[in-house]
Write a structure and sequence with these properties.
- Chain A: This is Mu homology domain-containing protein.
- The structure holds 2 protein chains of 2 kinds.
- Chain A contains 8 helices and 23 strands.
- By secondary structure, chain B is an all-alpha fold.
- In chain B, helix 13 runs antiparallel to helix 14, helix 18 packs parallel to helix 19 and helix 23 runs parallel beside helix 25.
- The chains are: A alpha+beta, B mainly alpha.
- Chains A and B meet through strand 2, strand 3, strand 4, helix 2 and helix 4 of A and helix 3, helix 5, helix 7, helix 9 and helix 12 of B.
C-alpha cells in the first residue's frame, strides 16, 4: 500500500513528508520534484520509476503525492488523495500552501490517524474532528470521552455519535443538478445529461431512521438491472409501485452515502438511512433521458477574411417566467491574435478578457422565457503565419433555483424515532451548469 | 536577551538553531517545550538533520499532553534508526502507554512501536501486542491487527512463534467490522510477502464473515475485503452466485474505488456462473456504475477508463449504448482524451458510428498534435471495423486533407493506406492523395503514399513520374521509405514494363551500389535476380494477392488480457502490463517470456505478421531495458511514465506496412530500434566485462537481421532474454 505521502507547493518545495513504510526514502521527494514538477512534458498522473510509483493530484497550489511500491490499487490511491484534500478543506477552510504551513502539526496528526502502515483508516471528517482538534486533547480530561470516541470511530455507525440533541428537529435537503451539454455546430445535441447530488443537512436528535422517496422510475436502468434479480426479491419487498406514474424520472445510476443501507436499496429501492449529524452528501445520480435544457443558445460566428470575426449570440431561457437564473456567464472564445473587440449586449455586460482569449458576457439576472442577444466583432492583428483557429466551444455558467433539469422531485422524507418526535423538513432545488458547451 | 537574539541572527544559523531548540526542549515551561518540539519537527520536514536532539526530545515523551506525545513519537519513528541504543529509553513509556486507561493512547503506543524498526524494540513488543490484540476497545484492536503485519515485516519468525497469525485469523470474525477488515488487510499483506505461511486462506466460514463485515465497515475496509473476495476461487456455482449477489449492491457506493473493486469481484466470479441469463444480468448491472465513474475526478477517471478499456476487450458489448459519455470535453486533460478515443473506437457499432465520425472529425481539427493524430487514426480504425461507414469515413478523411495541416495530412495518408488494404474500390481518391506529395516529411506517411502508388500503378497515369521523383532523392530517404520505393518501382515495372525499364535499373543500381544498409541491398538483389531470371515468377511473387486486414484496433493478446483482469483497478490495469514487467526483480525475463509467448502464438496463425510483431516487441523492449538498467545504477530505474499503450511500438496493423510487398521480410523501422537497443546493451556489456556473452548476443542479432523469419524472431527473444538476465546480474554487483 502507500509507502508515504508528500505535499509540495507549486514551486516544488517539500512541505510535508510522512513515511509509513521502510521503503520510503527521503530522496524520493527529490526524484518526484525532478521527474514531475520540473518536467513540463509529464502528461500522466501516474509515474512508475522502477518499483516506485508516484501518484499525484493537484489541489489549489499543492501537489499531493502518494508514493507506493508494488502493484497497488490505483483507484484507491487517488481516491484517498482526494479524501485527504477534502479533509484538509474541512479542517482549515481551504487546503493550500498557506494552510499546510500554518497547520503542519495538524496535518501530521491527521496523516497519522487516517493512514496506518499505509492503509487508509477512518477518513470521516466529522468523526476525526472529535479527537483531532486544534486545541489538543488532554488525556485525563478526555478519558471518559475517549472510549466513546473510539467506539464511534470503529463502530458500524461511524458517522454518527450518540446522544445528539436539538431543540428543533430540522432537515434540509438540497437537490443540486449539474447539466452537461454539448451541442454541435449544426445545432444537434450531442450530449445532454445531468449529474445530480442530493445534499442533506440534518439537525435531528437521537438516532433517527430516515426514509427518502423520489419520483424516479423504480427499475434502475429499466430493462437492465431490474429484470431478473429484483424480480426474485421484489416479491419480498411487498411489490412497491410496479411502474412509476407519469412525470417520473429515469435515473441511470445512483451512488449512495455509506449510511444508506445498500442491500435494502437493491431489494426494493427504498433509500433508508441513519443520517450523520450535520451536512453530508446523501446521494449522487445521473440522468440522461428527457433533460430539460434551461438555456438554448444560438450562435452565429463568421470569420470575415483574415482580419475580423463577427459574432451574433442569442440566448433564450426555456424555464417558466416566474423563475430567474443568476450569475449567468457566457464565455465566447476569440482567436489568439485578437487585437480588439467591440460588442453590444441587449442585457448584462460584456468584456473582452485577453488572458482567457474570450469575450465574457455576464448577466446578473436572467428571467424565464426572455431572450437576450449579443453582437460582437473581434478585430484580428496580422500574423505572419496563418494558422487555422481551433474554435473552442462557447461555454456557459449559471445557477437556477427551484428548477431541476432532470425533473426530479423529492416525494417524501420520513423521519422515524422513538417517542414523540416532530421534525421540519425543507427541500430546495437548484440547477447549475456543469460543462455547458456549444460548438460553432 | 537582545544580544542573544542578535548573536543567533548573525552567528552560524544551523548551530544556533539547534542550540536554541535544545534549550527549548529542556525548558522548565511546558509550552516552551512543546513549541520547541514543533520546531524540531518542522526542521525535520525541511530535511535538516536534527537527530542530535534525540536525547532531549526523548525527555519529553512522558507527558499527559496527547498532541505532544504524538509529536515525540513522530520524531522517534524518524530517527530511531540512527539512535538504536537510546530507543530503549523509550521502551518503558511505550509499555506503560500500552496499558493506559485511555484507548487512544493505547492505540497510539502500539501503532508507534510497530513503526520503530529497531531490533531491540521487537523483544519488548511481544507482550503489549498480545494484550492489545485482545483489548476491549475495537479501536485498539484494529490498530493492533495492523501492527502484526508490521512485526511480521521485521521478524516473521517471532510473529509465527507467538501465534499472532492465528489470532488474526480469529479476528476476521470480530464483532466490529473495522477490526475484521484490518485483520483481513494484515493477513493479506503477510500472505503476499510470504505465501508459505498460508496466512490468508479463505474458507467458507471466513467467506461468510467477510461478506458480513463488508456491508458495515468503512469504504477502505470494503476495498480490502472485496480484493480478497476477488482473489478467492469459488468452490461451486452456487457460491459464486452468492458472492455476486452480495457484492453487487456495492456498485452503488459513492467511492469510485469501491465500485471498481466490486466490479472486479463480480466480473471474476461471474465467469463461474453457469446461467447465461444471470451473467448477462450482471453485465448489464455493471454498465451504469462504470459510466458514472467517467464523471469522477480526472485521475480517478483515468484509472476507470483504462479499466473499462480492459473490460471492453473481454466483453465488447457492455457499453454499446453509452457512446456519448465518452465524448471528450474541451478541457479534459490530454491523458483522458487519448484514453477516451480508444474506448470510443471499441464501442463503435453501425448504430452509433455516424455520431462518432462527426465527433472524431471535430477532434481532428483541434490543436493538440498527439490528440489530432490519434483522432485521425481512430477514423481509420472505425472505417475498417465497420464496413457500412467506410465511405463516409473516407469522405471525412478527404475533408481533412483539405485542411492542409501538415501532421493531419500525413496521418490521413497512413490511415487511407490501411483502408485500401481492407476495401477495394476507392482508387478514385488517389489523385487527391498524390496532390499532397510535397507536404509529406514523415517516413511512415511517405512510405504509405509510395505503397499506394506502387500498388495501383496501373491506374495512375503519372505513376512513373511520381516514382521518378522519389528515386532521384533515394539516398536521402529513411530506410523504411527506401524499401517502399524499391518495392513500388518493381511493381510499376512489372505492370508497365515499357515505360519504367530505366527507372527500375536506376533504383536497383542505387540500392545495391550506393547504399550500405544490408536490408535494402538484400532486397534489391533479390528483386534483381527475380527480374532477370523470369518476369513471370517475379510477377507471381511480387504481385501476389495480399491478405486482407481485419482490424487496426490494438488488442491485447488473450493470455495477457486474462492476467490483467484479476488486476483490475491496480497499476497493472492502468499500464496494461502484467505487474512483474514494470515492478521489481525479474521483470526483464518476464517481459521477454511474454513477448516470446505472444510471438509463438502469432507465428502459428500468421507467419508474416509474426515477424513484424516480434521485431516490434524486441524493438520496443530492448532500448527500454537498456535504459532501465542504466538507471538501475542510480537506484531508481526508469520504466516509462506513459502507460503501455502510449509507448508500445506500433501493433501489427500500423507496422504491417512493411509486410506488404508480397514477400516475407524484416520490418524496417522497428528493427532499427532493436539494433540500437542491442548496441546499447553490447556497449554496457563491454564495460561490465562480459565479453563472451556479448559476442553471442550480437551474432544472434546478425543472423536475425539476415534471415528474419518468425521462428528466428523467437530465437532472438530467448537469446536476448538470457543476455539481459546476466547483464542485470552484473549490474547488481555494483
Amino acid at each position: 500500500m502507500l509507502s508515504g505521502v508528500l505535499l509540495f507547493n507549486q514551486k516544488g518545495e517539500l512541505l510535508i513528508m510522512r513515511a509509513f513504510r521502510q521503503d520510503m526514502r527521503p530522496r524520493l521527494a527529490d526524484v518526484f520534484r525532478i521527474q514531475v514538477i520540473s518536467n513540463a512534458q509529464i502528461r500522466s498522473p501516474i509515474l512508475t520509476l522502477g518499483s516506485t510509483t508516484f501518484s499525484h493530484i493537484k489541489n489549489e497550489n499543492l501537489y499531493i503525492v502518494g508514493v507506493s511500491k508494488g502493484n497497488v490499487n490505483a483507484a484507491l490511491v487517488f481516491e484517498f488523495l482526494y479524501k485527504l484534500a477534502g479533509l484538509g478543506k474541512a479542517y482549515f477552510g481551504r487546503f493550500d500552501e498557506e494552510a499546510v504551513k500554518t497547520n503542519f502539526v495538524m496535518v501530521y496528526e491527521l496523516l497519522d490517524e487516517i493512514l496506518d502502515f499505509g492503509y487508509p483508516q477512518g477518513t470521516d471528517a466529522e468523526t476525526l474532528k472529535m479527537y483531532i482538534t486544534t486545541e489538543g486533547v488532554k488525556s485525563e480530561r478526555a478519558l471518559e470521552d475517549s472510549s466513546k470516541i473510539t467506539m464511534q470511530a470503529t463502530g458500524a455507525l461511524s458517522w454518527r455519535r450518540d446522544g445528539i440533541k436539538y431543540r428543533k428537529n430540522e432537515a434540509f435537503v438540497d437537490v443540486i443538478e449539474d447539466v452537461n451539454l454539448l451541442v454541435s455546430a449544426s445545432g444537434t445535441v450531442l450530449r445532454a445529461d445531468v449529474n445530480g447530488t442530493i445534499d442533506m443537512r440534518a439537525y435531528l436528535s437521537g438516532t433517527p431512521e430516515c426514509k427518502f422517496g423520489l419520483n424516479d422510475k423504480l427499475t434502475l436502468g429499466e430493462n437492465g438491472a431490474g429484470t431478473d434479480l429484483s424480480m426474485q426479491t421484489s416479491t419480498k419487498g411487498g411489490k412497491k409501485a410496479s411502474k412509476a406514474a407519469a412525470g417520473s424520472v429515469t435515473l441511470e445510476d445512483v451512488s449512495l452515502h455509506q449510511c444508506v443501507k445498500l442491500s435494502s436499496f437493491t431489494n426494493d429501492r427504498t433509500i433508508s438511512f441513519i443520517p450523520p449529524d450535520g451536512s453530508f452528501q446523501l446521494m449522487t445520480y445521473r440522468a440522461t433521458e428527457n433533460v430539460n435544457l434551461p438555456f438554448k443558445v444560438h450562435a452565429i460566428v463568421n470569420e470575415v477574411g483574415k482580419t475580423k470575426v463577427e459574432y451574433s449570440i442569442g440566448i433564450r431561457a426555456n424555464y417558466g417566467n416566474k423563475l430567474y437564473a443568476t450569475n449567468v456567464v457566457v464565455k465566447i472564445p476569440t482567436p489568439l491574435n485578437t487585437a480588439s473587440t467591440t460588442h453590444r449586449a441587449s442585457q448584462g455586460k460584456a468584456k473582452y478578457e485577453p488572458s482567457e482569449n474570450a469575450i465574457v458576457w455576464k448577466i446578473a439576472r436572467f428571467t424565464g422565457q426572455s431572450e437576450y442577444v449579443l453582437t460582437a466583432e473581434a478585430a484580428l492583428s496580422a500574423m505572419t503565419t496563418h494558422k487555422a483557429w481551433s474554435r473552442p466551444p462557447l461555454s456557459m455558467q449559471f445557477s437556477l433555483l427551484m428548477f431541476t433539469s432532470s425533473g426530479l422531485l423529492v416525494r417524501y422524507l420520513k423521519v422515524f424515532e422513538k417517542g414523540n418526535y416532530s421534525s421540519v423538513k425543507w427541500v430546495r432545488y437548484m440547477t447549475r451548469a456543469g460543462s455547458y458547451e456549444i460548438r460553432f | 536577551m537582545a544580544v542573544n537574539r542578535l548573536r543567533t541572527a548573525l552567528g552560524t544559523p544551523r548551530k544556533g538553531e539547534t542550540h536554541e531548540l535544545r534549550a527549548g526542549l529542556v525548558s522548565q515551561y511546558a509550552y516552551e517545550r512543546k513549541d520547541s518540539i514543533q520546531k524540531t519537527i518542522m526542521a525535520m520536514t525541511l530535511g535538516k538533520d536534527v537527530s542530535v536532539l534525540f536525547p532531549d526530545v526523548l525527555k519529553n515523551i512522558a507527558t499527559p499532553d496527547l498532541d505532544q506525545k504524538k509529536l515525540v513519537y513522530l520524531y522517534l519513528m524518524n530517527y530511531a534508526k540512527s539512535h538504536p541504543d537510546l530507543c530503549i529509553l523509550a521502551v518503558n513509556t511505550f509499555v506503560q502507554d500500552s496499558e493506559d486507561p485511555n484507548p487512544l493512547i493505547r492505540a497510539l503506543a502500539i501503532r508507534t512501536m510497530g513503526c520503530i524498526r529497531v531490533e531491540k524494540m521487537i523483544d519488548y513488543m511481544e507482550e503489549p501486542l498480545r494484550k492489545t490484540l485482545k483489548d476491549e476497545s475495537p479501536y485498539v484492536r484494529k490498530t493492533a491487527a495492523l501492527c502484526v503485519a508490521k512485526l511480521f515485516d521485521l521478524n516473521p519468525a517471532l510473529c509465527i512463534e507467538n501465534g499472532f497469525l492465528e489470532t488474526l485469523q480469529e479476528m476476521v470474525g470480530d464483532s466490529n467490522p473495522m477490526v475484521a477488515a484490518n485483520s483481513v488487510t494484515a493477513l493479506a499483506e503477510i500472505h503476499e510477502v510470504a505465501p508459505e505461511t498460508r496466512a490468508l486462506v479463505v474458507t467458507s466460514q471466513m467467506l461468510k464473515k467477510m461478506l458480513l463485515a463488508m456491508n458495515e465497515c468503512t469504504e477502505w475496509g470494503r476495498i480490502t475485503v472485496l480484493k480478497t473476495l476477488a482473489d478467492y476461487r469459488a468452490l461451486d456455482t452456487k457460491e459464486a452466485e452468492n458472492i455476486c449477489e452480495r457484492v453487487s449492491p456495492q456498485f452503488q457506493h459513492v467511492n469510485p474505488a469501491v465500485v471498481l473493486a466490486a466490479v472486479k469481484t463480480v466480473f471474476l466470479h461471474m465467469q463461474h456462473i453457469e446461467s447465461q441469463q444471470l451473467r448477462a444480468t450482471y453485465l448489464k448491472k455493471m454498465a451504469p456504475p462504470l459510466v458514472t465513474l467517467v464523471s469522477s475526478q480526472p485521475e480517478v477517471q483515468y484509472v476507470a477508463l483504462r479499466n473499462i478499456d480492459l473490460l471492453l476487450q473481454k466483453e465488447p458489448g457492455i457499453l454499446e449504448k453509452e457512446m456519448r459519455v465518452f465524448f471528450c470535453k474541451y478541457n479534459d486533460p490530454p491523458y483522458l482524451k487519448l484514453t477516451k478515443l480508444e474506448i470510443m473506437v471499441r464501442i463503435a457499432n453501425s448504430n452509433n458510428v455516424d455520431q462518432l465520425l462527426a465527433e472524431l472529425k471535430e477532434y481532428a481539427m483541434e490543436v493538440d498534435m498527439d490528440f489530432v493524430r490519434k483522432a485521425v487514426r481512430a477514423i481509420g480504425q472505425v472505417a475498417i471495423k465497420i464496413e457500412e461507414c467506410a465511405e463516409r469515413a473516407v469522405n471525412v478523411l478527404l475533408e481533412l486533407i483539405n485542411t492542409k495541416v501538415g501532421y493531419v495530412v500525413q496521418e490521413v495518408i497512413v490511415v487511407i493506406k490501411d483502408i485500401f488494404r481492407k476495401y477495394p474500390g476507392y482508387e478514385g481518391i488517389i489523385p487527391t492523395l498524390c496532390s499532397c506529395i510535397d507536404d509529406l516529411d514523415e517516413p511512415n506517411a511517405r512510405g504509405s503514399l509510395i505503397w499506394i502508388v506502387g500498388e495501383y500503378a496501373e491506374k495512375i497515369s503519372n505513376a512513373n513520374e511520381i516514382l521518378t521523383g522519389f528515386v532521384e532523392g533515394f539516398n536521402e530517404e529513411f530506410t523504411q521509405t527506401q524499401l517502399q520505393i524499391l518495392t513500388a518501382v518493381v511493381k510499376l515495372f512489372l505492370k508497365k514494363p515499357d515505360e519504367s525499364q530505366s527507372l527500375v535499373q536506376r533504383v536497383l543500381q542505387a540500392a545495391t551500389a550506393e547504399n550500405d544498409n544490408p536490408d535494402i541491398r538484400d532486397r534489391a538483389y533479390v528483386y534483381w535476380r527475380l527480374l532477370s531470371s523470369d518476369p513471370q515468377i517475379a510477377k507471381n511473387i511480387v504481385l501476389s494477392a495480399r491478405p486482407q486486414i481485419t482490424s487496426t484496433i490494438p488488442v491485447l493478446p488473450a493470455p495477457l488480457l486474462n492476467t490483467l483482469l484479476p488486476n483490475l483497478s491496480t497499476l497493472a490495469s492502468v499500464y496494461h502490463k502484467p505487474p512483474q514487467t514494470f515492478l521489481g526483480d525479474g521483470r526483464s525475463s518476464a517481459l521477454q517470456a511474454e513477448a516470446l509467448e505472444e510471438a509463438r502464438e502469432n507465428a502459428r496463425e500468421n507467419p508474416i505478421a509474426a515477424a513484424a510483431v516480434t521485431a516490434a516487441i524486441a524493438g520496443g523492449s530492448a532500448p527500454q531495458q537498456a535504459q532501465s538498467n542504466a538507471e538501475n545504477l542510480l537506484d531508481i530505474d526508469f520504466d516509462g511514465s506513459a502507460p503501455a499503450s502510449m509507448q508500445k511500438a506500433p501493433g501489427p496493423g500500423a507496422s504491417g506496412l512493411e509486410g506488404l510487398a508480397g514477400t516475407p521480410q524484416r520490418v524496417a523501422s522497428p528493427q532499427v530500434g532493436s539494433g540500437g537497443g542491442m548496441d546499447d546493451l553490447a556497449g554496457m556489456f563491454g564495460d561490465a566485462g562480459g565479453s563472451g556473452v556479448n559476442g553471442g548476443g550480437s551474432a544472434d542479432d546478425m543472423i536475425n537481421g539476415f534471415a528474419g523469419l518468425g521462428v528466428n524472431g523467437g530465437q532472438q527473444g530467448s537469446a536476448t532474454g538470457g543476455e539481459k538476465k546476466t547483464n542485470e546480474d552484473l549490474l547488481g554487483l555494483f
